[in-house]
Design a protein that fits this description.
It is a single chain. The chain is built from 14 helices and 15 strands. The protein is of the alpha/beta class. It folds into two domains: 2-104 and 139-232, Endonuclease Chain A (Endonuclease, Chain A, 2-Layer Sandwich); 241-356, Endonuclease, Chain A, CATH 3.30.870.10. Strands 2-8-7-6-3-4-5 form a seven-stranded mixed sheet, sandwiched between helices. The chain is globular.
Amino acid sequence: MLLSGNAQPSSKPAESFHEELLTEGDIFYDRALQAIRSARRYILLDMYIFQGDSIGRIIQQALIERARAGVYVRVVYDHFGSLETPNRFWNELRAAGASVFAYKPIFKFAPFRRAVIRRLKSPGWLQTFLRWVRLVFIRRDHRKILVVDGRVAFTGGFNIMRECSRREYGEARWLDTMYVTEIPMLCRALEGLFWDTWRRVHAPHVEYGELAHKRVREAIVLPANLKKKWERRPDIPGRMSIPRAVKKSIRRSTDRIYLMYPYFIPYGGLMRLLRDRARAGVQVSVFLSLRTDHRSLNLIAYYIAYRLSKDGVRVHLYHGRRVRGAPNRFAHAKLALFDRTVAVGSSNFDHRSLALNL
């Protein structure tokens, strides 16, 4: 999640750098392709869902072309999110010279093998198995980050798949958002998040200087506190920063709070904060999707929204139909507005996203 800010460690004011919120998948894919094809030094891509469909193939071919041209390409994909993508897809990238790693491959996770083989008859086998379920199926790499040469960065809710493209999926395409920025501070921050993920999948006990290729290392300046976070809590760095930021933003809001998330399941503390703000006269509005890819989660979100509505929270259902008879669209966007502060990113409004997922 990125919260808007004013301080920029650059001689140029923030207004001099381009930033934009993209709401069409085709526009995002075109802009991402443009950035990838113009890369001269490095490309860093961290994606939850990277499908091997028509959209994924276009992005893959652009990455392959840059890798063969000598650009340093590094890709991290979530194994669970990209489970349908064949290994051949990733091997083609590797053959071109790109470095590609999966985040927590679910069929190769050592704790699961130990639980089944060594501890099946021991008293602690169930705890080990449940721990494996939590780590593998619950704590996933939900980030969507693309950084090119340290000059342009993307983050938001868009995955790389045809369901987000109007050209490929038609009027039923998913509604989503992607924030693109050229602000140096934000580009460096997103680079830092990528290296955090890379360190987890590639070499959990190696420092950044040993991980990064020389051409990348000379071009990237990591946030000063990233190494400290690794040293303080190397297993889960900064895992509670998003919940704290969300709670602080809700408490400080005096005019309006708009929340648009596909999986809206706030836990008790957030529920109380939203109720308190609504009772205090703050306009609290929640935007839910009529169409969903997880029916059970949507029903839970409807019930929670119904309870919040009794305390003055406004609830809106998004269908996305421009004309009668058109198909409903799934609102997959993750957006929040706290007075005049906008929050955009890949985190949903539930405990799993706020406290567990990357």
